[in-house]
């Protein structure tokens, strides 16, 4: 297997924690419902590959996300390993009750940086949704759980266009002030570019929120996810969301190039000499296995490239003609 | 059409010249031969979209690149516009004669940073290939032409693995010393990561070759091309090679995710507030038109995403479910 030559870039974090979202963010956007035993095996394989934070499912009402209606059963089936966390999405107190019953250590709530998306996704204003999450976060923290807050539409919004940086910081701070332990900044429609990322992280810093409390969640809709990740690493962020094989993302983009693929992220981190703990070959094999079950190829460049690699290269075979 | 919010990143070039390689590097790797009138229209459309450097074809012997056997006829047909350059690849003095006859302003020669690829691609050692290009460059310069030098395998080589930075600098300097006006550093197999890019550009600088004489040519085989481009921009490089629609690349990778897609590059440059002169909508339309002629979709994320965009978004339509 080809691997990048390791060459660190000064000023980057020494270690990055990958927050794997494939089983939840990936599979919730699948047109077909994946059997619970396949989900459980997927998660077990991701843990085998070295991932230590694997967002497992969502306790959102099955009416909204039928793909994850088996959340309770999945959590029962999961063979939980020491050192691995399996966060679940929780929309309200009833969801929290189910999560507590399932014995999770980390929940995730989800807000929107824009009123348009808050109304459409949560059927509430931004302020109402933060108020709704207040008791969820308080009770979860009292129960000793960690609480991640997702913030959607941090860069652009399909209805509102570019989202002002100060507006994102304001909503993000209110989520952290509820008691959330981590804030994941989502480029839900994938329009961000590296200068925008740098500017948003700078603004959070000025508002007293350092990169140690932030994660980034980029979508590759316009091919920018990894360049944006580099900009975030340069700003000190050390938690990066990604999805094995690039599963999932925004279903309104038929091309299904949604989430940053974990494999593409791992390739870059390895080359940068940043510790991530993931076995790339095992991870790519897992994504190929999942792609077979879903009946279509992974959009991850790395997964595709590793599948195309000849086992042994013949002496005559020329990988590229003439130049390039 | 969605567009990124413009947010400059300090320290980057104000303007980037895109060296469009689709008609040459893209089409030379196509399994089928594209009719010469389609090639001519492709190049005209690229110029319409605002590209000012469009590598048109190659005067390599048709035995090696039958896809471009119509180089002379294509150059005859080309309606050349003021302010647009149409470089052609030239392998030897005979190729130069043909290029001079066709009235080109810029030629490109091509060397290898590794002995393995020099032997396979040029059937010569690195030293022999540089010696062969000597009279080509001298005569071209005497005729008032600009000469670009491509250098392949600048980061990794399928036979030799990681390529030492000093070796790349040494071969690159010898090509520039021949009289070449620009050196394009190629990550032919797509294995580079941003730290490696930064290190190579730093080493060139220490050897007296500043970023003003350098271009970068990244392949997206492992999804790294745009992150690497960002690192190159941060090191001061202001000439970037890319291919409309992501055409071409390395045919040994069946997935055909070869060259960095010009559209993905343009998206990032626009967001960074860097002047590039390209009309993205026209360019993406050209790539879709070409993809129809080739019978398969463009691998460019931006081309795919723009094709998926609804003309008008309904009020109820939710682009992303629940979170992300």
UniProtKB/TrEMBL annotation, chains A, B:
Keywords: Lyase, Metal-binding. CDD domains: DRE_TIM_HMGL. The keyword Lyase applies. GO terms for molecular function: hydroxymethylglutaryl-CoA lyase activity; metal ion binding. It is an enzyme of class 4 (lyase). Its EC number is 4.1.3.4. Pfam families: HMGL-like. PROSITE patterns: PYR_CT. Residues 16-284 form the Pyruvate carboxyltransferase domain. Residues 299-324 are annotated as: Disordered. InterPro entries: Aldolase_TIM, HMGL, PYR_CT. The keyword Lyase applies. One of its GO terms (biological process) is L-leucine catabolic process. PANTHER family: HYDROXYMETHYLGLUTARYL-COA LYASE. Belongs to the HMG-CoA lyase family. This is Hydroxymethylglutaryl-CoA lyase. It comes from Carbonactinospora thermoautotrophica.
């Amino acid at each position: 297997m080809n691997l990048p030559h390791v060459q660190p870039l000064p000023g980057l974090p020494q270690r990055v924690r990958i927050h794997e979202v494939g089983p939840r963010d990936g599979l919730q956007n699948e047109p077909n419902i994946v059997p619970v035993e396949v989900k459980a095996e997927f998660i077990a394989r991701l843990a085998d590959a070295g991932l230590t934070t694997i967002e497992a499912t969502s306790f959102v009402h099955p009416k909204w996300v039928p793909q994850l209606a088996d959340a309770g059963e999945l959590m029962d089936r999961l063979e939980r390993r020491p050192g691995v966390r399996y966060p679940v999405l929780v929309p309200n107190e009833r969801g929290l009750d189910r999560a507590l019953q399932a014995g999770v250590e980390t929940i995730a709530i989800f807000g929107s940086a824009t009123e348009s998306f808050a109304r459409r996704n949560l059927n509430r204003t931004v302020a109402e949704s933060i108020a709704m999450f207040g008791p969820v976060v308080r009770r979860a923290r009292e129960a000793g759980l960690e609480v991640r807050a997702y913030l959607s539409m941090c860069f652009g919004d399909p209805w509102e266009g570019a989202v002002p940086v100060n507006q994102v910081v304001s909503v993000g701070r209110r989520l952290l002030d509820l008691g959330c332990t981590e804030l994941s900044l989502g480029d839900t429609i994938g329009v961000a570019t590296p200068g925008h990322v740098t500017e948003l992280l700078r603004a959070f810093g000025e508002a007293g929120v350092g990169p140690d409390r932030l994660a980034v969640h980029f979508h590759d809709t316009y091919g920018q996810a990894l360049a944006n990740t580099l900009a975030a690493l340069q700003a000190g962020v050390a938690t990066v969301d990604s999805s094995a094989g690039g599963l999932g993302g925004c279903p309104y983009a038929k091309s299904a190039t949604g989430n940053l693929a974990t494999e593409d992220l791992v390739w870059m981190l390895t080359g940068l000499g940043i510790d991530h703990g993931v076995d790339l070959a095992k991870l790519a094999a897992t994504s190929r296995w999942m792609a077979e079950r879903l009946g279509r190829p992974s959009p991850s460049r790395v997964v595709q490239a590793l599948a195309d690699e000849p086992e042994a290269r013949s002496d005559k075979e020329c990988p590229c003609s003439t130049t390039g």
